[in-house]
Design brief:
With 624 residues, the protein is an alpha+beta fold. The protein has 4 domains: 177 residues, Multidrug efflux transporter AcrB transmembrane domain (Multidrug efflux transporter AcrB transmembrane fold); 74 residues, 2-Layer Sandwich (Alpha-Beta Plaits), CATH 3.30.70.260; 83 residues, Hypothetical Protein, Haloacid Dehalogenase-like Hydrolase, Chain: A, domain 2; 133 residues, Gyrase A, domain 2 (2-Layer Sandwich), CATH 3.30.1360. The protein is built from 15 helices and 22 strands. The strands form 7 sheets. A 4-stranded antiparallel β-sheet has the order 2-3-1-4, covered by helices on one side. A 4-stranded antiparallel β-sheet has the order 11-12-6-21. The chain is elongated and about 115 Å long. The two termini are 22 Å apart.
């Protein structure tokens, strides 16, 4: 029988429509502006939440509800404009060990989240996001380079048995200072070190009984080092933000030592700040043996056993030798661990040290540079928030060396989130220099609310005009095309939500274009049906031939549009990508709705061989 789909195809189309509606549904639940409160210990108590809400009530900032879930407090506000003021008030009220961040609290029902339905992402031009201006500590990069050189010099002098007076230090003029008791050892040191450190300028002098050898960086080498550090930080930031899943971020250099970061759609700044600014450096040290003279040491408490260990400051292997990290589960303890891989140089040095240190304890020190925010009330009553960087060092492993270590090993004793974050920071690369937050704010949509509303209105007006046009021109078949068009919009929203695509203002333009392309396919089909009817073909046959013969034309035009969208996405940036994404998704969904959805509806209305008429906006030819 003509114009009848088999049952399985009808059920498949129905399932496709239902799934599209389900996965598009989260976009109709508007998120609430909120304040998120967390604690360095991981748990926020009810007393802290009560203090926060009381400060908001006292200042007249309305909120809908507040609660604690999984140790994190969330206060839902009524107006996004109140977020900045609310954050400052709560920062002023709570101690510094509480982290107060802006957030957008989703209202997606739990049953939708259970099937993985999430709203689509919005670009900075539509939804706004967070803005960071960060300053790179280039002096710290220089100091790190000098300290690395000192560690290498110390090792080389010891291996060649050249006597010097420890310790090797960096003086106030940022020079490496080595002391010798005679000129012979100093000359031997120059002959040994100069070929290995060609970027350092040497100078000798005599100070009392000491024969001094100074090394300093040449101006050109210093400038190159700082430029390299800044570029490495940019590269690392892009990698870390990609790990966060932020779509279309803006990361660019501002001046000689600052970096601008804009993250669209991000309101919860806590995790973003931790991973963006964290300088997580792994350092491997030998534990100082009691009573042995082993140079300068520092004391650290190992949280796992509560004991205090003296750690030799000489670094065996630094974080720059770590080439990869991956989390896994220890088969024996079922606890998370991080599998570490070293480069060839680091592996060789670690193997050489551990080979002669079997039976001795080795410690792994994790050094992180973090930022602490503090809010104070100024003389004029205005709240002022400042950020202060600080360095947190802690032992994450102390273990006895059982055998010589090689290129791969593992770190255990970490919490799940801690292991994931540590692996992420190592995979994305180490920051060449610490960075400090100079500015932090939540930015509104860059195009302005009026422009956004105009963009949305353009979609609605275009949709309304298409609906009216199709009904006037094609009557009942026009209604069928409009139903398919609404399903097309649902499918576009569902596809973009599932794919995690980002909707931008140019993306809205792509949606408007897609609406026209979607209805154009139905126009081609209906025009073909009309032609067949004018030639005296029966209604059933005309419908069948119209859909079949129009298919090739529809396929050609949509494949061309899809190819253009793919090219735009591959060579374009920012707004061009946003336009290309919605166009490509729209091409796919319009093909599906024109060929399957509208055909299924027409089959339901006019299926079978005995149909005598069709409402397609034309006078039917008389039949005998």
């Amino acid at each position: 029988m003509l114009n009848k789909f088999p049952l399985w195809k009808n059920l498949l189309i129905l399932l496709m429509v239902i799934l599209s509606a389900l996965y598009a549904a989260p976009n109709f639940y508007k998120a609430d502006p909120a304040i998120q409160i967390s604690h360095e210990s991981g748990v926020v108590d009810q007393g802290a939440l009560n203090s926060a809400t009381q400060s908001l009530e006292k200042d007249g900032i309305p909120f809908s509800r507040a609660g604690i879930e999984d140790g994190i407090a969330l206060i839902r506000l009524l107006d996004q404009a109140d977020q900045g003021r609310a954050q400052q008030l709560i920062n002023l009220t709570l101690p510094q060990d509480y982290i107060v961040a802006l957030n957008l609290a989703a209202n997606t029902p739990g049953w939708l989240e259970a099937i993985g339905a999430q709203p689509m992402n919005y670009g900075l031009d539509l939804q706004g996001g967070v803005h960071f201006l960060m300053e790179v500590d280039l002096k710290a990069a220089t100091s790190k380079q000098m300290n690395d050189s000192i560690a290498s010099m110390r090792t080389m002098l010891r291996e060649e048995r050249i006597r010097y007076s420890p310790p090797i230090t960096v003086d106030d003029a940022n020079r490496i200072a080595l002391r010798f008791s005679d000129t012979e050892n100093r000359t031997s040191a120059i002959n040994l070190l100069q070929p290995e450190f060609p970027d350092l300028l040497s100078r000798t002098s005599q100070e009392g009984q000491d024969y001094m050898l100074y090394y300093s960086m040449a101006d050109l080498s210093l400038q190159t080092l700082q430029e390299t550090a800044l570029q490495q930080n940019l590269t690392t930031l892009r990698s870390r933000i990609n790990e966060l899943g932020v779509k279309e971020p803006k990361i660019q250099q501002m001046g000689p030592n600052r970096i601008l970061i804009e993250l669209p759609g991000v309101q919860d700044t806590t995790r973003a700040k931790d991973l963006i600014s964290a300088v997580a450096t792994l350092q491997f040290h030998l534990v100082a043996e009691p009573g042995a003279a082993q140079g300068t040491t520092s004391e650290y408490v190992y949280e796992n056993d509560g004991q205090t260990y003296k750690i030799n400051e000489e670094v065996i292997v630094g974080g720059d030798s770590v080439t990869g990290a991956q989390t896994s589960i220890d088969a024996q303890t079922t606890l998370p661990q991080v599998d570490i891989r070293l480069d060839a140089v680091g592996a060789q040095r670690l193997n050489a040290i551990t080979r002669v240190s079997i039976g001795k304890p080795m410690a792994i020190l994790l050094s992180e540079t973090k930022t602490r925010s503090e809010t104070v009330e100024g003389a004029d009553g205005q709240l002022i928030t400042t950020s202060e960087p600080y360095v947190e060092e802690r032992l994450i492993s102390v273990a006895t060396i059982q055998s010589a270590l090689g290129r791969q090993f593992r770190i255990t004793g970490l919490e799940s989130n801690e292991a994931n974050d540590l692996a992420l920071m190592i995979r994305s690369g180490a920051l060449a220099a610490p960075m400090y937050f100079m500015e932090e704010s939540t930015v509104g949509p860059s195009l302005g609310q009026e422009n956004i509303e105009n963009g949305v209105d353009s979609v609605l007006v275009g949709l309304a005009l298409i609906v009216v046009f199709m009904i006037l021109l094609y009557r009942v078949c026009g209604v069928v095309a409009n139903i398919a068009l609404f399903v097309n919009v649902l499918m576009m929203m569902a596809f973009m939500s599932i794919l995690g695509a980002t909707l931008t203002m140019p993306g809205i333009a792509g949606i408007v274009l897609t609406l026209g392309m979607a209805v154009d396919a139905n126009v081609l089909i209906y025009a073909r049906i009309r032609d067949e009817l004018m030639q005296g073909m029966t209604v059933a046959r005309a419908i069948d031939v119209g859909y079949d013969k129009a298919f090739v034309t529809i396929l050609d035009s949509n494949l061309t549009a899809l190819l253009v969208a793919v090219i735009l996405y591959s060579i374009g940036t920012g707004p061009i990508k946003g336009f290309a994404i919605t166009t490509a998704v729209g091409v796919v969904t319009s093909m599906m709705t024109a060929i399957w959805i509208s055909r299924a509806l027409v089959n339901w209305l006019y299926g079978g061989n005995n149909v005598r008429s069709i409402s397609i906006g034309m006078k039917m030819p008389e039949t005998a």
